[in-house]
TrEMBL record:
<feature type="region of interest" description="Disordered">
    <location>
        <begin position="1"/>
        <end position="42"/>
    </location>
</feature>
<feature type="active site">
    <location>
        <position position="140"/>
    </location>
</feature>
<dbReference type="GO" id="GO:0008933">
    <property type="term" value="F:peptidoglycan lytic transglycosylase activity"/>
</dbReference>
<feature type="domain" description="Transglycosylase SLT">
    <location>
        <begin position="44"/>
        <end position="347"/>
    </location>
</feature>
<dbReference type="InterPro" id="IPR011757">
    <property type="entry name" value="Lytic_transglycosylase_MltB"/>
</dbReference>
<feature type="compositionally biased region" description="Low complexity">
    <location>
        <begin position="1"/>
        <end position="12"/>
    </location>
</feature>
<dbReference type="InterPro" id="IPR031304">
    <property type="entry name" value="SLT_2"/>
</dbReference>
<protein>
    <submittedName>
        <fullName>Lytic murein transglycosylase B</fullName>
    </submittedName>
</protein>
<dbReference type="InterPro" id="IPR043426">
    <property type="entry name" value="MltB-like"/>
</dbReference>
<dbReference type="InterPro" id="IPR023346">
    <property type="entry name" value="Lysozyme-like_dom_sf"/>
</dbReference>
<feature type="compositionally biased region" description="Basic residues">
    <location>
        <begin position="16"/>
        <end position="32"/>
    </location>
</feature>
<dbReference type="Pfam" id="PF13406">
    <property type="entry name" value="SLT_2"/>
</dbReference>
<dbReference type="GO" id="GO:0009253">
    <property type="term" value="P:peptidoglycan catabolic process"/>
</dbReference>
Length: 369
């Protein structure tokens, strides 16, 4: 989007006469450009990693050393991976508004119209509703518009070998996770003939329309368009099938609601008993009601465990729902109850809009938004 925004300015200046050159100030030295961040080629720990991993990753040692030597630490990645300031109040209303908004919904209608057959096939094959699949892609990348501008190799190397330190209270060192994702990325590039220096993604190393981490790409991505290879960057159809497969493999149950309405008990201790399992469903409807919670009729009839989900609203009273296995499954995509609820509410709103307006042809004004 930045390059498109800059284009009119460039076109405008192309027709203007160049101003007369100003004389250089005598004796004034030009400003020195800041030195680029150092590469990893001289780091003994990085080269030791290359030597130890080369054989298992399918690289020659010199080859893997050369690849990792080209990675550069990214201070922005180090900053973005850390949690927000301690004590910052969460606000579900503000979080929801970032995603469940008209422009993204209009883009969702156009995406659904364009890929109606693929979404229907994914729903039939994996049991995940089309609106949930479309919602994940919309929330993750605004339907391919925002897929990340960081070199994946740089991001994963930074988080593997230069994870921020010291960490703020409550944060933990996740460098072992990212070191494994770096391994998976290097295998992914070799297996698919991809240039590891050219692949772009998020600051955490997630890629493509559905923002898959390298390990998830290798385990759950599928060739859904039938062209003989998996491509989550240039094939939205592969992304549709892969999102559906990911959710099914993480426990999505066909036909099960994601959550039910619930009135929580006023007693703080009773409410704490229900919140103890966080997003993992562990209590049945009878246990909910035994401590004073009131479920909707559908929730009382639910056959399976539930979890009480608390969504804070800044200074206002929190919002509560009773989450099912399918709510928990959405949190496997991104481990946040706020994220899961945003996906679910976007999906419900998108399906409602589609029902009200009918399938939107790709050439309509809605798709051009």
């Amino acid at each position: 989007m930045a390059s498109l925004a800059a284009a009119p300015a460039l076109a405008e200046t192309a027709h203007k006469p160049h101003p007369a050159a100003k004389p250089k100030s005598a004796g004034k030295k030009p400003a020195r450009k800041p030195a680029p961040p150092p590469a990893y080629g001289d780091r003994a720990d990085v080269m030791a990693f290359a030597d130890a991993q080369a054989d298992s990753l399918g690289y020659r040692r010199e080859e893997l050393r050369a690849v990792l030597a080209l990675a550069r630490p990214q201070p922005t990645v180090q900053r973005l991976i850390l949690p927000g300031p301690p004590g910052q109040a969460k606000d579900w209303g503000a979080y929801r508004q970032r995603f469940v908004e008209p422009q993204r919904l209009q883009a969702g209608l156009a995406f659904w119209a364009t890929h109606e057959a693929a979404l229907a096939r994914a729903e039939a094959s994996y049991g995940v509703p089309a609106e949930i699949i479309a919602s994940v892609i919309g929330v993750e990348t605004f339907y391919g518009r925002i897929m990340g501008s960081f070199r994946v190799l740089d991001a994963l190397a930074t988080l593997s070998f230069d994870y921020p330190s010291p960490l703020p209270p409550g944060a933990r060192d996740r460098s072992p996770f990212f070191r494994e994702e770096l391994r998976q990325f290097l295998i992914l590039a070799r297996e698919n003939g991809l240039d590891p220096m050219a692949m772009k993604g998020s600051y955490a190393g997630a890629m493509g329309w559905g923002q898959f981490m390298p390990g998830s790409w290798r385990r759950f991505a599928i060739d859904f368009d039938g062209d003989g290879h998996v491509d989550l960057i240039d094939s939205p159809v592969d992304a549709i099938g892969s999102v559906a497969n990911f959710l099914r493999e993480h426990g999505w149950q066909r036909g099960m609601p994601t959550h039910y309405e619930v009135q929580v008990p006023n007693d703080t201790a009773a409410r704490a008993q229900l919140l103890i399992s966080d997003v993992l469903p562990q209590l049945d409807a009878r246990q909910f009601e035994s401590v004073g919670a009131q479920l909707s009729p559908q929730g009382r009839a639910h056959n399976g465990p539930l979890a009480l989900i608390e969504l804070q609203m800044g200074g206002a009273a929190p919002v509560y729902v009773a989450g099912t296995q399918n709510f928990y499954t959405v949190t496997r995509y991104n481990q946040s109850s706020y994220y899961a609820m945003a996906v679910i509410e976007f999906a419900n709103t998108l399906a409602s809009w589609r029902k009200a307006t009918g399938p939107t042809p790709p050439s309509s004004p809605a798709s051009a938004s």
